[in-house]
Amino acid sequence: MEVKNVIEVNQSSIYQRNHLVLSDVNFTLAEGEFVYLIGKTGSGKSSLLKVLYGDLPLKNGNGKVVGMDLKTLKTSKIPDLRRHLGIVFQDFQLLTDRSVEENLKFVLKATGWKDKNTIEARIDEVLDSVGMLSKKKMMPFRLSGGEQQRVSIARALLNHPELILADEPTGNLDPETSNEIMNLLLSVSKQNNCAVLMATHDYDIIRRYPARKVRCEEGRFLEVTEELID
Ligand SMILES: Nc1ncnc2c1ncn2[C@@H]1O[C@H](COP(=O)(O)OP(=O)(O)OP(=O)(O)O)[C@@H](O)[C@H]1O
């Protein structure tokens, strides 16, 4: 069977306005694959992820994410791209003025879901898959960091994404909770055949959960081949 790629980037440079952050980026991510994006603070991990979810333009080279061409992506098509992606942030980014359930409902309605029963069933399904069904009515500020991250992973799963982009998802969590979130990310990736590109500089996590690694370093983007990483 032919393997489908959910990310294909060729000969691209990543810019923040006119500042060149990364050049000569060549990268493919196959469906269902889990890959770490590593590199020091300021090396360009977030900038690359932003290009992949349409928050920064792809200025040169070619890029495709979940089959959509980043080079010709019109602003009006960005919601379409995001519908096929799940995005998980370090600071969870839940809406603070509404419950867990309402956070998820907001996303479903914004992405075109209409039927009340279908919406409720999908919310229960994703919350159950991250072990948060019993916290459905809670406000985010009453949840621990780990629980908030679980909800944000549930939110990422709502539209059956082929790809999750996770920017330092364990960055605000203690080591034990980080391990729980890693186990969850790995299991949802496997269960849903959903690829994950996870930016991190947490080397304990990388050692504990080995996977393919790519690195941003001094303006370049490299595949990491050595076993030992600093
Ligand atoms: N909005 C912006 N405007 C201009 N330059 C920016 C902007 N955001 C980031 N940069 C610059 O782009 C470079 C890459 O930053 P980026 O946030 O992608 O790195 P990172 O590897 O994700 O770091 P961190 O782990 O701190 O998030 C840095 O030199 C940064 O100063």
UniProtKB/TrEMBL annotation:
<dbReference type="GO" id="GO:0005524">
    <property type="term" value="F:ATP binding"/>
</dbReference>
<keyword id="KW-0067">ATP-binding</keyword>
<dbReference type="GO" id="GO:0022857">
    <property type="term" value="F:transmembrane transporter activity"/>
</dbReference>
<dbReference type="GO" id="GO:0005886">
    <property type="term" value="C:plasma membrane"/>
</dbReference>
<comment type="function">
    <text>Part of the ABC transporter FtsEX involved in cellular division. Important for assembly or stability of the septal ring.</text>
</comment>
<dbReference type="InterPro" id="IPR027417">
    <property type="entry name" value="P-loop_NTPase"/>
</dbReference>
<dbReference type="InterPro" id="IPR003593">
    <property type="entry name" value="AAA+_ATPase"/>
</dbReference>
<protein>
    <recommendedName>
        <fullName>Cell division ATP-binding protein FtsE</fullName>
    </recommendedName>
</protein>
<dbReference type="InterPro" id="IPR017871">
    <property type="entry name" value="ABC_transporter-like_CS"/>
</dbReference>
<feature type="domain" description="ABC transporter">
    <location>
        <begin position="1"/>
        <end position="228"/>
    </location>
</feature>
<dbReference type="InterPro" id="IPR003439">
    <property type="entry name" value="ABC_transporter-like_ATP-bd"/>
</dbReference>
<comment type="similarity">
    <text>Belongs to the ABC transporter superfamily.</text>
</comment>
<dbReference type="GO" id="GO:0016887">
    <property type="term" value="F:ATP hydrolysis activity"/>
</dbReference>
<dbReference type="Pfam" id="PF00005">
    <property type="entry name" value="ABC_tran"/>
</dbReference>
<keyword id="KW-0547">Nucleotide-binding</keyword>
<dbReference type="InterPro" id="IPR015854">
    <property type="entry name" value="ABC_transpr_LolD-like"/>
</dbReference>
